[in-house]
Model the fold of this input.
Amino acid sequence: MATFHPFPRLPFELRAMVWALAAEPRTVEISFDYGGGINPQVLQSDFTKAMYYLVSSTPVPAVLHTCRESRKQSPYEKLFYCQETEPCYVWVNFDLDMFIGIGDVYFLFHNRSRVRRLKLDIQYKCWDPEDFEDWQFENLVEFHVVVHDLRECATFWDVDFLPSKQGNFVFIDGKTGKMMNSCDLDDMVRRLLIMTRSYLSYDHETDDEGPSPLPV
Done:
């Protein structure tokens, strides 16, 4: 792409709009790591604050590398594990970015009201959806869950936070990539219930008839 040399001569308001529009939706993988160097005098309530910091394999947005003005005007901010005195952070845009957590999203706990897009990979993790519900990600508009097998999604069927946002909750089979939304989940579980009841009814009728007579 050719360089637009007159750009610095544009009015500041217009340049600021350009930097803001330079942000693109990203998938940001975030986890936390152990920091060490704990001060023995730190309060017990501050123990985890001293231990952990955020890490990410997602590249820093290109607009933050352009110039000082682009960094200042871009719609990205620093995300910390708990407090702004930590040595490490991740650049994020809460409006556009999809956050990925591998089995755990505790690193977002302090910013849960600002999270709008979340992807949770629970293929190889023991995870209770009720724990997620208690964290009150009340402003989610998009939620993806990666599972080992789509049949595992049945555990989400009666979770209270699903019905209000049917089309935005997507389940992904980690092996095949097949996707299923919560409406599809509802249909699947209802079919399984009908099949189970039919089987139990047939099994009960067979028991009532008693054993089949022995051949003469």
